[in-house]
Amino acid sequence: MKIFKNHGDYYIPKSDMKSSGEARILRILLVFVVLFTAVFLIVLSRHYSSAAEFFGKGEVTVTQAEEEEEYLPPIEGKTNFIVFETDDERTAMNFIFLIQADKDNKAYKVCSLSPKTMIDGKNLYDIYSVGGGAAVQTKLTEYLGVQIDYFAEFEATSFTDFGAKLGTLVYPSPEEIKFSGGDEENKYTLHISEGEQNLDAQMISNLLRYYSEEKKNFALENELIQRIFTGLFNEENYGDCDSLFRLFIKSATTNITVRDFENGKDALTVFCKLNTDITVYGAEVQYEDNVLTQNSVKEIKGYFSK
């Protein structure tokens, strides 16, 4: 039943009796609207911080992500590192790799090398045994034609002790590995099942060595290193980065200083906050009689030039 009869632009009541009834209905509707509005505002205030959040509920995650992105400090430039492990007596080099922190493109670039890589008639261990990590850094800078800024060398026990503080790494092993071997005074064993495995620091060290020395699969070694750094640079470790850096300084022989660390805090913030959004690249090398092919040298230069 229609309450009003429409006539032009005005509503005219049909009778006084109907007018009285209509007034009561309007008052009831008004009370209902007021009560509904009050209840709605109470519920809104309990579940949402603002009306904008309520009406844009489906877009909150995107907005928060954009705010997080805007919060990150601007960073630029590229920094190259060489990292390697020796046995505890420093009589052999177990593995070695290049890594670049590409702050311009927010990316890691990784290149595993063989410790037996020959440069001017000497392998990388021979170069290390004469001049230490600084000599390896200098020789590779000259040979590859890229500026390597820092080196970090670990003894095997120091590497595993440092890694133990960081927990385990989930690694999707492409195959089952059962291996026992190595040099007479530098033996190691490795047993990993196929599929996702939790690797501790000792297993990571041995797997890097296995891929480098035995399997000579530098693509798999690159992938493992990429996973290590993605796992290392996360928000939880960022909150404890000062103590972790102090432990790193104690564990490794390096030319990275406290000042370098402090100057790199902005980059550390970005890489830890973005974490899995960081792009990763791997340069896979090829050898001929332990000498890098010319194509491999060119590829490394293309990846690691600044």
Protein architecture, described:
The protein is of the alpha+beta class and 306 residues long. The chain is built from 12 helices and 16 strands. It has helices spanning 16-47, 51-55, 60-71, 124-144, 156-164, 201-214, 218-232, 235-239, 241-251, 258-263, 265-274, 294-304, and strands at 5-7, 10-12, 78-86, 93-102, 107-113, 118-119, 122-123, 150-155, 169-173, 177-183, 186-192, 195-199, 252-254, 279-282, 287-288, 291-292. A hairpin with a 2-residue loop joins strand 1 and strand 2 (10-12). The longest helix has 32 residues, at 16-47. It is elongated, with a radius of gyration of 32 Å.
Q: How would you sum up this structure in a few lines?
A:
Helices cover 49% and strands 25% of the residues. It has 306 residues and is α+β, with helices and mostly antiparallel strands. Helix 6 packs antiparallel against helix 7.
Protein traits:
single chain; two-stranded antiparallel ribbon; 306 residues; 12 helices; 25% strand
- Summarize the biggest pleated sheet: 6 strands, mixed
Number of strands: 16
Q: Order of SSEs, N→C? A: EEHHHEEEEEHEHEEEEHHHHEHHEEEH
User: What sort of overall outline do the alpha carbons produce when their principal axes are compared?
Assistant: elongated
Oligomer: single chain
Rg from C-alpha positions?
32 Å
DSSP strand (E) fraction? 25-35%
Order of strands across the biggest sheet?
13-8-3-4-5-14
Low-confidence stretches: 1-18, 57-63
Content-based structural category = alpha+beta
Proportion of helical residues = 40-55%
Helical segment count:
12
**Distance linking N and C termini:** 81 Å
